[in-house]
Structure formats: structure tokens, C-alpha cells
Specification:
Shape: elongated
Number of strands: 9
Oligomer: single chain
Number of domains: 2
Order of helices and strands: HHEHEEEHEEHEHEHEHHHHHHHH
Strand content: 15-25%
Length: 426
């Protein structure tokens, strides 16, 4: 049994490719091609922008979590925990917790000569800290060896490990002395004087996240306790199996904590930033979808002109027995094919650029001698991309729906053509 395609599909595809070679038909084909190109570019722009925003969010999140733990348990009054060892034992009973480490968090000034910068000081236990963060143990040096990292911190030596950008801003290198100025100073007859402590740079780190590389100072938790006059850690940092479950794990741990303790996860610590990224992503989706909509509704003018040009063909088909429904189907196929080709072409172009953006953007930066992502503004210095099916599928569906809707009115007008009126002047 031989399979035959519906004639509506055959004629719709033939009209899409072009009709007889006339000046009018050539113009219609040009308009149809512009509509197809517009849909394709709009879809490609949507895919590229959403992929870059996904990649940007993922890159910043991953680099942030190389310094920031998944969950933090802190004293509600900002002081030392009453029972840090008991808290560590308690949280490790949860099956989702992979590691836990005590810490002290405080703010201070770091000074070298006349240069001074506000910093976030974190007192850590070097043996336990790798359990909660993925910070590299050290940075590559010119001789090929690794510079010391947090493992170089020893209690009583008052050494500090600085972010690479912070060290550059203050002109510090390994072994250089630096002064830490604590805000909780000493009370004297002349007033409250800040406490100064001479420290030594014993290590550097580079998380790739400018906000932390330019402002974070790590020291041994015992040294931090002496400088800030604390009897013990101010909190406990946790790493869990699935970072996306941080909020639910925090809710599970909260009832078992002692009074006067607070718990927060990484999404709460950076809520404003992640909320802003989501709003930007939604707004970009809406704006670029309007571009696709404009290109899709160009099909209306294309099909109206095509219907006018094909009035004689429509009349002949009607006299041969074609129903108005079949005529409508022919032009719906024509418009839909333009939408399908444009959408598929746009998806292919968008994915091609999205998967190779790490090569395309550096090449453009070299050509134009410009940096598109200054890391002191955008936190990262390279353009990331993370195409996700959850974004690509809605883009394709919306594009096809818009193209299909744009074909309804011209196709309906074609089905209403009167054969006698159409053939009167032929």
C-alpha cells in the first residue's frame, strides 16, 4: 500500500519554497525569508542570553561556595558558642552533613604603611576547614610549586592567609609583615584605642570570586580568639551532600540546636544577589520573546500577500472540490513551515554559540582589545555558559506557538475566497 502525503501539506511546502518566478512572488519570498531570519535570530538570542545567565549564576555560585559554606550555625548575640564541641557532634549525626568546622567571624582593618583596607577576618581550624570548603590548598607559583595556603596557619604564630586581589592592592607578598587593627579596642584615659597586632603573610588563596579574594583574611581560630577577645568559635560551618537541599537540611537541624543559636544557609546569605539574577533572567526572557513575537507576526503580512497572489490557484482548487478547511490548511502549513525552519535554525545557531562562547568571547576581546567582564564589577572575568533544557524547550514551544497563531487570520481569509470573483479577471 503506497503512502500518499495530504495535498495540503504538499502545496503548503511548495508555496513555502516559492512559486512562479515573478517580481511580486520574488518580493513575497523575500519577506518570507526575512520573517524566517527574524524568528531564527530571536530564538538564537534567547538561547544565548539565557545560557549565559545560567552559566553566570552557576559560576558565581560555585566560586562563592569555594569560600562560603553551605550552612552556618552562629551565636545569636554574635559572641562565642557555649558548647562548640557539642554542637559539632550534634550536627554530624545528620546523614546529609559531610563535614563541619568551627570558625570565628569578625571585621577589622588591614594596614601596610599608609595603605589601609577593611577586611572580613575568619578564624579557622586548618585541619577541619577543607571539610566545608573546596578552596585549593595553595596557588601555583612561578617555579611550578604551590604557594602555601590555609595549611600554613599555625596557632600562636599569628599568620594570615590573604586573597590574591587583597594582597595585590596592599602590595603584599609571602613573608611580608602586615598590621591588623581590631575595632574592639582598649579603654584608656584618652578614650578607646583600637588594638593593633603585627601579623605575617604566610599564604595566599584565589577562589576566583573577586568579592572574597579582595576582602577575606584567614587566620588560625586560636589566634583570632586572642585578637578579638573571644573564648571560643562564634559559629560552626557545614557542608552537605546536595547544596540545593541546604534550606531543608537547615530546617531539620534547627530544632536540635541549643537556645541562643541561629542557623542560616547559603541562599539566605546571598538572597539579594540571587533574587536580582532571577528577576533579570525573567525580564530578559520577556524582552527577547517580544523580538520573536515581532518576527513571527511578520508572517501575517507575508501570508496576506501570498493569499492575494494565489487567488487564482485557490479558485481552481475550490472548483476541483477542495474545501475551505483544506485551503486554510494549505496556508497554515506554509506559515508553520516558516516558523519551524526559523525556530530550528535559531536553536542550532544559539546552541552553537552557547557551547563555544568560551572561545568566541576571548577572540572578540582580543580583536577589540577590551574586557567585556571586568571582575571587580561582575565578580568573574570570563563569560560562562550553561544551556539548560528547561530554558530551551519553552523558547522553542513559544516560538512555534507564535508562528502558528500568526497564520490563523491570513489562512482563514484564504478559505473565504470566492472562486467566481477570483477567476473573473483571469
Amino acid at each position: 500500500m503506497k503512502f500518499e502525503m495530504p495535498f495540503e501539506l504538499v502545496l503548503g511546502w511548495r508555496y513555502t519554497r516559492a512559486g512562479r518566478a515573478t517580481r511580486r512572488n520574488g518580493f513575497i519570498s523575500f519577506i518570507s525569508g526575512v520573517s524566517m531570519l527574524g524568528i531564527g535570530l530571536g530564538v538564537a538570542a534567547l538561547v544565548i542570553v539565557l545560557s549565559v545567565m545560567n552559566g553566570f549564576q552557576k559560576e558565581v555560585r560555585d566560586r562563592m561556595l569555594s569560600v562560603v559554606s553551605h550552612i552556618e550555625i552562629v551565636s545569636a548575640d554574635g559572641g562565642a558558642l557555649e558548647d562548640p564541641k557539642g554542637t559539632l557532634q550534634q550536627v554530624r549525626l545528620n546523614s546529609q552533613v559531610l563535614g563541619a568546622a568551627p570558625f570565628i567571624s569578625a571585621q577589622a582593618l588591614l594596614a601596610r604603611g599608609e595603605d589601609m583596607k577593611g577586611v572580613l577576618v575568619r578564624g579557622i581550624e586548618p585541619a577541619l576547614e577543607p571539610q566545608v570548603i573546596d578552596l585549593p590548598s595553595g596557588m601555583p607559583a612561578a617555579n611550578g610549586n604551590n604557594m602555601p595556603g590555609i595549611e600554613a596557619l599555625k596557632p600562636g604564630q599569628f599568620g594570615v592567609v590573604l586573597g590574591l586581589d587583597l594582597a595585590r592592592q596592599l602590595g603584599l607578598r609571602l613573608g611580608d609583615p602586615v598590621t591588623l587593627i581590631s575595632p574592639n579596642g582598649q579603654v584608656t584615659p584618652a578614650g578607646v584605642l583600637p588594638r593593633l597586632k603585627q601579623m605575617q603573610v604566610v599564604g595566599l588563596f584565589n577562589s576566583g570570586h573577586y568579592e572574597y579574594d579582595s576582602a577575606l583574611v584567614m587566620m588560625h581560630v586560636e589566634d583570632a580568639g586572642k585578637i578579638f577577645r573571644l573564648e571560643g568559635p562564634t559559629g560552626v560551618r557545614l557542608k552537605i551532600k546536595d547544596l540545593h537541599e541546604a534550606r531543608s537540611v537547615a530546617r531539620e537541624l534547627a530544632p536540635n540546636l541549643a537556645a541562643g543559636m541561629a542557623i542560616r544557609d547559603w541562599t539566605q546569605q546571598n538572597r539579594t544577589w540571587f533574587a536580582a539574577v532571577q528577576v533579570e533572567k525573567r525580564m530578559m526572557f520577556i524582552i527577547l520573546t517580544l523580538i520573536v513575537a515581532v518576527a513571527a507576526f511578520n508572517l501575517v503580512s507575508t501570508l496576506v500577500m501570498s493569499v492575494t497572489d494565489k487567488r487564482a490557484d485557490i479558485a481552481i482548487l475550490r472548483t476541483l472540490g477542495a474545501s475551505p478547511k483544506s485551503i486554510m490548511g494549505i496556508f497554515m502549513v506554509q506559515g508553520a513551515m516558516v516558523g519551524v525552519i526559523g525556530t530550528v535554525g535559531g536553536l542550532l545557531l544559539g546552541l552553537l554559540v552557547a557551547f563555544n562562547i568560551d572561545v568566541i568571547v576571548p577572540a572578540l576581546e582580543t580583536i577589540f582589545r577590551a574586557s567585556f567582564l571586568p571582575k571587580d564589577i561582575y565578580l568573574i572575568s570570563r563569560m560562562p555558559s550553561d544551556p539548560q533544557m528547561a530554558d530551551i524547550l519553552p523558547v522553542a514551544v513559544i516560538s512555534l506557538i507564535l508562528a502558528f497563531v500568526a497564520t490563523l487570520y491570513p489562512s482563514w481569509r484564504a478559505s473565504q475566497v470566492n472562486p467566481a470573483e477570483a477567476l473573473r479577471y483571469e
